[in-house]
Design brief:
Elements: H1 2-5, H2 10-24, H3 26-40, E1 43-44, H4 54-60, E2 71-72, E3 75-76, H5 82-99, E4 103-105, H6 111-134, H7 145-155, E5 159-163, H8 179-183, E6 185-189, H9 200-210, E7 214-217, H10 228-238, E8 241-245, H11 250-254, H12 264-267, E9 270-274, E10 285-289, H13 295-298, H14 301-304, H15 311-324, H16 327-348, E11 353-354, E12 363-367, H17 375-384, E13 387-388, E14 390-392, H18 400-403, E15 406-410, H19 412-416, H20 421-436, E16 438-442, E17 448-455, H21 457-473
Parallel strand pairs: 1-13, 5-6, 5-7, 7-8, 8-9
Antiparallel strand pairs: 2-3, 4-10, 9-10, 11-12, 12-15, 14-15, 16-17
Helix pairs in contact: 2-3, 4-15, 5-15, 9-10, 16-20, 20-21
Length: 483
């Protein structure tokens, strides 16, 4: 095991790769170097980002990229897929072991692809298959044009409920600008105006009145655990399919931070996720299920939604899942949550208001109105000070989704660097001192701008130095030295 982890030729591998790239397009090689330098010089607190291991990164850059492999292992539409089959099977087996799932589909290219596969699998299972059975047909191609039109209308006339955007939900959960919102008739459940937390009684009332086919849980900016057992009870009471998008917190599920009622895989009919974020793998998606009747429909992700799977990324997923199966990953997942709690406490004791008053997961949502700022101003000022965050809506946000009233902070990436609770207190001080020193600029009409800001050079430069000190003590890829 020691030899496995003590990789001495990481620098050689990446330098040689950059040399090869540079022969074809020198600018791209330089931009790759620049991105690493950029990531090494900023405190990354974007909750949806992390640092993949060198092994994961290298697994993506190989000749698997050249292979078409529509279909599933052993049932491809192309010949010559022997080793793609092995890679996909291994990735699927690792995912099943990691999440204690009976079935894992590792082909989706992204989170939205995973969600689309899940939605269409549910529609195929709940709407299309019963229709075919009632017409004694095996395939949609066997239907008459009139029957096909009837089925098409039924597929496009189903209902869904999901978490509202300003409460922390995601565009892919049925919102009109996204294809999911054009696919379903959607209604949103929100949070209690006082506690800013989910109100399960209210969700149940909405479900009983609206009677959706699908209930979606999961979030991109909700700093609390979700009781998936309660959500499953609501779904079962109306015969709905319960789907969870765990893209943000998959690492906390894999690391056994979220268990029992809070484990989505144990409670949902179907679960989707990205493989980066807290899971620390390559950018991609997965679909999981413990419901045996769902697998045959999920397996049809290609040609239903997807094109050719990315075998190189599936290889990287297999590596990431193998890494997450190591005991050290459980320690890491627990440290993510401890760090988020420490960061939240540090911000609160310096006067910052947090949505829901704290956190139980990997993210912290800060209401920046008390600093006299919009989320866009806070985001920009912090980046100037060496801290990368993203602006984010808060519940009932008066500034809308563009300017916002909040910023979202996440601890997965800094935890990967080895930072702990002491460092989180320093990060909180850098954030709050920057925000306290930032003011909105005045517009030409004399009103406060929602985008432009003023921050003294002294505060900016001092906090950049402090951020740099933290990063020098906890370097990114310490074994990697580019020439």
């Amino acid at each position: 095991m020691e030899g496995k982890k003590n990789i001495s030729d990481v620098s050689t591998a990446f330098n040689k790769a950059l040399d090869v790239i540079g022969v074809s397009e020198p600018s791209i090689a330089e931009h790759i170097r620049g991105e690493l330098e950029n990531q090494r010089s900023q405190l990354k607190l974007i909750a949806s980002e992390n640092y993949a291991s060198p092994a994961v990164l290298l697994a993506m850059g190989n000749w698997f990229s050249d292979k078409y492999a529509e279909g599933t292992p052993g049932h491809r539409f192309y010949a010559g897929c022997e080793f793609v089959d092995k890679v996909e099977t291994l990735a699927s087996e690792h995912a099943k072991d990691l999440f204690k799932a009976n079935y894992a589909y590792v082909q989706p290219h992204s989170g939205i692809d995973a969600n689309l596969v899940a939605y269409w699998s549910i529609l195929a299972h709940r709407v299309e298959a019963p229709f075919l059975n009632s017409h004694e047909k095996r395939h949609v191609n066997d239907l008459t044009n009139a029957d096909w039109e009837t089925l098409r209308q039924s597929l496009g006339n189903q209902r869904m409920i999901g978490m509202s955007l300003d409460a922390g939900g995601h565009l892919t959960h049925g919102f009109r600008p996204n294809i999911s919102g054009k696919l379903f008739d959607q209604r949103s459940y929100g949070v209690d105006p006082e506690t800013e937390m989910l109100d399960y009684a209210s969700i149940n009332t909405l479900a009983q009145e609206f009677r959706p086919l699908v209930i979606v849980a999961g979030y991109s900016a909700y700093p609390r655990k979700v009781n998936f057992a309660k959500m499953r009870e609501i779904a079962d009471s109306i015969g709905a399919t319960f789907m969870v998008d765990m893209a943000h917190f998959a690492g906390l599920v894999a690391g056994k931070v979220f268990v029992d009622d809070f484990d989505p895989v144990a409670n949902a009919h179907i679960v989707t996720s990205t493989t980066h974020k807290s899971l620390r793998g390559p950018r991609g998606g997965i679909v999981l299920s413990n419901e045996s009747e769902m697998s045959e429909f999920i397996d049809k992700g290609c040609p239903m939604v997807l094109g050719g799977p990315l075998a190189n990324v599936m290889a990287a997923k297999a590596v990431a899942f193998a890494e997450a199966l190591e005991p050290e990953f459980e320690v890491y997942a627990n440290e993510i949550v401890k760090n988020a709690s420490a960061l939240a406490e540090g911000i609160q004791k310096r006067g910052g208001r947090l949505v829901t008053g704290g956190t139980e997961n990997h993210l912290v949502l800060v209401d920046v109105r008390d600093f006299g700022l919009t989320g866009r101003q806070a985001e920009s000022a912090l980046e100037a000070a060496g801290v990368v965050v993203n602006r984010n809506s808060i519940p009932f946000d008066p500034n809308g989704a563009w300017y916002t009233s909040g910023i979202r902070l996440g601890t997965p990436a800094l935890t990967t660097l080895g930072m702990g609770e002491t460092e989180m207190n320093e990060v909180a001080d850098i954030i709050c001192s920057t925000l306290k020193a930032t003011e909105p600029k005045a517009t030409s009409s004399g009103e406060n701008s929602k985008a432009q800001y003023k921050l003294s050079d002294e505060v900016r430069d001092n906090n950049r130095r402090r951020a740099g000190d933290l990063l020098s003590q906890n370097p990114l890829y310490p074994d990697l030295h580019l020439l």
